[in-house]
Amino acid sequence: MKYYSFSFVRNPYDRAVSDYKWQKNVRKQNYNFRTYLKNAYKICNQYESSKKINYENCHYVPQTWYLFNEENRSVVDFIGKYENLQADLERVISKLKINSKLLKNENRGKIMPYFFYYWDIRNYFLVKKIYKDDLKNFNYSFFKSNVLRILIKRILSKLKK
Questions:
Q1: Which of 4, 2, 19 is nearest to 79 (CA)?
Q2: pLDDT tens per residue across all 161 residues of the chain
Q3: Is 43 within 8 Å of 61 (Cβ atoms)?
Q4: Which domain holds residue 149?
Q5: Which of 11, 17, 41, 15 has its CA nearest to residue 143?
Q6: Domain count, the chain
Q7: Distances from the Cα of 48 to the Cαs of 11, 31, 68, 132, in angstroms?
Q8: C-beta separation of 62 from 131 below 8 A
Q9: For the chain, first and last CA: distance in Å?
Q10: CB neighbours of 87 closer than 8 A, spacing ≥ 6?
Q11: Cα separation, 82 vs 105, whole angstroms
Q12: Rounded-to-integer distance, Cα 33 and Cα 16, Å
């Protein structure tokens, strides 16, 4: 029996901010974004050689670790993107020939000006360093992130005034 496997990934620049906010709000961690990224870098370096991920730190590690093998080949049939969730999910549903339902976004956070987290350029470079494989394997960049879209939208709205 052949199974169809799929997964969804998220732009690392958006994912880092989202996880940082989750760590602060749910796990009640009291540190700034830079410290969060330094922790992520340290944890990823610790796990780099063993590729053993524990539940407590699984949010920090690159998504590539879950979805690519040692030969850097995808271990799933389809990788969708969070940014295209509905369309990519419809593609999976169509492939599997099952009834489609629209997704409800029930746990939507406030739209946050993520770009503030990247005013410190060191944060940008640290995310780029930690998640270099995700950026390459999933064709992401800072310029394809919601961070930049929100920044541009705000700048344009200011210019129109």
A1: 4
A2: 689 999 999 999 989 998 999 888 888 888 999 999 999 998 888 887 666 767 677 788 899 989 999 899 999 999 999 988 889 999 999 898 888 766 666 666 555 567 778 888 899 999 999 999 999 999 998 776 666 666 677 677 777 76
A3: yes
A4: 6-160
A5: 11
A6: 1
A7: 20, 24, 14, 13
A8: yes
A9: 61
A10: none
A11: 12
A12: 9
Q: What are residue 74's DSSP bridge partners?
A: 68
Token pair 């496997």 in the structure block, residue: 5
Which residues lie across from 79 on neighbouring strands? Answer: 7
Cβ-contact 40, 17 below 8 angstroms: no
Looking at the domain assignment, is residue 1 inside a domain? no
Q: Does the model's pTM come out above 0.85? A: no
Q: Hey, what are 48's tokens?
A: 């780099």
Domain-located, residue 103: yes
Rg of the chain in Å (alpha carbons): 17
